[in-house]
Design brief:
Elements lengths: L1 H28 L3 H23 L9 H21 L3 H20 L3
Amino acid sequence: MVLRTANRALRFLLEVLAVLAIAYWGFESGDTLPVRIALGLAAPLVVAVVWGVLGSPQAALPVSERGRLLLEGLVFGSATAGLYAVGQPILAGLFVALVVGNHALMRLWDQ
């Protein structure tokens, strides 16, 4: 029971970290300061809104299981790719390993 609760907490933490990783990518990717600020604020905002509307457990417009899996892949994949793109391959690898492990346990425990 404790491990299942910890796995759910890890899932929430990974969702938050994905949004932060996308923000980090945005702040590091622009050529000019205004572009960096715009990307650093807009990209995670779009991800958070889409996730909240379609992918969260209490989504306003819930999608099918396949749609949710696709959305998860896009969000977590974007965060991983963003970390890698800004020169953080170790963080990207650690993040994707945690996501895969968490997802496997969620499937195993039907969470």
